[in-house]
Structure to design on (475 residues):
């Protein structure tokens, strides 16, 4: 690998660190009882106490032998290498998942999504200067590709390391997870790897349904909501030889930590007064983001942690309720335009609770919203030059509410997480423009947001008259 890359043009003090050879000592670690388990198996919950697992590099502290400033230089110069396996989330391999050899990394173009300054008029509406990190520009058009790049690279590694002859990857989804899983699994050897997704029937947009079908996955629709699908895949993972690809799998969480690493790099590692606005959903992403910033802080790559603003719809707000009352109660969800966040019992909540209690006690905030606010947050953003989904609209509306409550102020710099592409949710936009939301959504359209095509004859004069155009002056 090194023969193809001229390292002599890079600074001498980091030259031998640009191509990572650190493999660490990564194990599954139970967040409940603390027991550890070998990474060379598909494992999702602790066999002893049934708690969730995280991946723990037992040699992580050895990375402290390199100064934080030097790590910054390593990651910044590494971006200049023309090495495919380091172009995506594995740019940060030492912190992300060091066990995976570079030759086993599956890279489909994920990660390093742009941070886009909000339109000035949108900033005025929201009440603060902020930016949007557009994760809808990942290959399957959502942030889930970060975790899936990690999980499928791990499967690729496991096939070779364990000489596996058959692997079935399975997930429950409201759309984005299934699209990402099906896409990344389809890249592997189809004689060995099969892809199955479970979706709640009638609860996934046509655009999202088309993605796993297009990638060749077996799509099974079942009655109920996401929580019902999740229960089924958990039972299958418990009793059968399958690889679970939901965020209950800690390998997924590893990849999603790259979101935090990228923000730090994009901000030149200056996180002072930073607020990250995140929709909660199944709580895997907010978990990964908090863990990612902790990694950076532990290695002194950044001097402080950012504030995390977690946002939920009041149709599915168990994490918000916990944060307000101290009591966690799973809930029966009501329909939400933020479909990926319509989860009444987030799988990763125990990790959120542990992270908040141990590290983010003073760095975690939460708000919940009406459905109308979420929908109009998306519409407002997109008609001001952005490309956000309903979950992105949820984040923007959540920021607006937090500003109005004094939780976020002009001294903060704010990055909003837009988790997927607006086109995945164009049916909700269409329903809003036609004022056809079912009653249970509690959304009544406002005329100022409605935009419809105008039907005119094939006549330039008719079009000019409609647009009130002025004729050019004669020369």
């Amino acid at each position: 690998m090194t023969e193809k890359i001229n390292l002599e043009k890079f600074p001498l003090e980091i030259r031998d660190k640009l191509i990572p050879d650190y493999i660490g000592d990564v194990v599954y670690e139970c967040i409940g009882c603390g027991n550890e388990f070998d990474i060379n198996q598909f494992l999702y919950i602790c066999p002893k106490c049934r708690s969730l697992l995280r991946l723990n590099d037992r040699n992580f502290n050895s990375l402290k032998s390199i100064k934080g400033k030097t790590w910054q230089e390593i990651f910044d110069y590494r971006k200049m290498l023309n090495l495919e396996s380091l172009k995506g989330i594995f740019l940060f391999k030492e912190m992300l998942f060091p066990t995976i050899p570079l030759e086993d990394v599956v890279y489909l173009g994920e990660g390093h999504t742009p941070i886009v300054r909000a339109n000035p008029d949108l900033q005025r509406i929201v009440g603060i200067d902020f930016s949007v990190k557009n994760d809808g520009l990942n290959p399957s058009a959502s942030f889930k590709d970060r975790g899936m790049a990690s999980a499928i690279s791990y499967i690729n590694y496991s096939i070779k390391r364990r000489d596996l002859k058959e692997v079935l990857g399975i997930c429950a989804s409201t759309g984005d997870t299934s699209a990402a899983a099906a896409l990344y699994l389809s890249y592997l050897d189809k004689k060995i790897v099969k892809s199955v997704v479970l979706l709640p029937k009638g609860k996934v947009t046509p655009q999202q349904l088309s993605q796993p079908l297009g990638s060749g996955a077996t799509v099974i629709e079942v009655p109920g909501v996401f929580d019902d699908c999740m229960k089924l895949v958990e039972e299958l993972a418990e009793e059968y030889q399958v690889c679970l690809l939901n965020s209950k799998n800690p390998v997924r969480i590893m990849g999603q930590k790259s979101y935090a690493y990228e923000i730090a790099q994009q901000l030149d590692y200056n996180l002072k007064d930073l607020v990250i606005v995140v929709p909660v959903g199944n709580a895997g992403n907010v978990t990964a983001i908090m863990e990612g910033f902790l990694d950076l802080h532990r290695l002194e790559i950044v001097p402080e942690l950012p504030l995390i603003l977690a946002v939920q719809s009041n149709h599915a707000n168990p994490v918000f309720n916990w944060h307000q009352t101290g009591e966690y109660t799973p809930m029966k969800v009501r329909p939400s335009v933020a479909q990926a966040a319509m989860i009444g019992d987030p799988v990763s909540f125990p990790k959120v609770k542990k992270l908040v209690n141990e590290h983010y006690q003073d760095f975690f905030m939460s708000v919940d919203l009406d459905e109308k606010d979420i929908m109009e947050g998306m519409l407002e953003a997109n008609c001001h030059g952005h490309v956000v989904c309903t979950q992105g609209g949820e984040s923007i509306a959540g920021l607006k509410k937090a500003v109005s409550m004094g939780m976020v102020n002009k001294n903060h710099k704010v990055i909003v997480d837009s988790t997927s592409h607006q086109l995945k949710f164009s049916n909700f936009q269409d329903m809003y423009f036609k004022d056809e939301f079912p009653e249970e959504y509690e959304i009544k359209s406002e005329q100022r947001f409605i935009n419809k095509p105008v039907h005119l004859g094939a006549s330039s004069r008719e079009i000019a008259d409609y647009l009130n155009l002025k004729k050019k002056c004669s020369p």
Observations:
- The mean pLDDT is 94.
- Residues 115-140+253-436 form a domain with the Rossmann fold fold (CATH 3.40.50.1100).
- Residues 144-162 form the longest helix (19 residues).
- Residues 127 and 250 are 37 Å apart (CA to CA).
